[in-house]
Amino acid sequence: MYDFIKGIIDYVGPEYIVVENVGIGYQIMTPNPFIFSQGSEVKIFIYHYVREDTAALYGFNSREEKALYTKLLNVTGIGPKGALAILASGQVGQVVQAIENEDEKFLVKFPGVGKKTARQMILDLKGKLENVVPDYFPNLFNDGVEPASSGAHSDELDEAIQALQALGYSDKELQKVASKLDSEQLTTEQYIKKALQMMLR
């Protein structure tokens, strides 16, 4: 139904953003809401998820991310929230490579993905993603995270933890990561990326 929505970011929260377009605010779930800045103009590729009891919009920075998301939804055991958590790593290539290499140990690190679901992902998607995400195969996580100029890192770390909780990560996992990140001064987006890197090792 929707391909993309172009508009102004009106709100950014741990679970979703609101994009205002011609006087209408669209609530859009995204893998990492804090990559967006309130007041900025964006073009977000939309997946309209509809079931008997729910209807929601999911948004992505590129058609490739959206395409991988729809592929993940077709895997038994992965719902819309689980697929979103997988894409929150920010590097589609790492997920694709794990599927192609049958790396179950990596895939089970995502919330809600057990051995059975990881195996199902590999069975359903291996060899079927190159046309969907051709540009993502070579790149893995970027280890270099530039420090933020802002010194108010505690609020931003709190926001990052809330966003990761919304994706399904447990309090125990997040407390462990938060204690390691507490001394750093990063933006919310950078905290999320670094926390995900630590949890997916």
Textual characterization of the structure:
This protein has 3 domains: 57 residues, Nucleic acid-binding proteins (OB fold (Dihydrolipoamide Acetyltransferase, E2P)), CATH 2.40.50.140; 74 residues, DNA polymerase, domain 1; 47 residues. 40% of the residues lie in helices and 19% in strands. With 201 residues, it is of the alpha+beta class. The chain is built from 8 helices and 5 strands. Helix 6 packs across helix 8 and helix 7 crosses helix 8. It has a 5-stranded mixed barrel.
Count every beta strand, where a strand is a DSSP E run of 2 or more residues.
5
Shape: globular
Question: At CATH's second level, what is the architecture of the largest domain?
Answer: Orthogonal Bundle
Strand order of the largest sheet: 1-2-3-5-4
How many separate domains?
3
Features:
5-stranded mixed β-barrel, DNA polymerase, domain 1, alpha+beta, 201 residues, ATP binding, OB fold (Dihydrolipoamide Acetyltransferase, E2P)
Task: Describe what is shown at a glance.
The chain has 201 residues and is α+β, with helices and mostly antiparallel strands.
SSE layout:
Elements: E1 4-12, E2 16-21, E3 24-29, E4 41-51, E5 54-60, H1 63-73, H2 80-87, H3 92-100, H4 104-107, H5 115-125, H6 153-166, H7 171-181, H8 188-199
Parallel strand pairs: 3-5
Antiparallel strand pairs: 1-2, 1-4, 2-3, 4-5
Helix pairs in contact: 1-2, 6-7, 6-8, 7-8
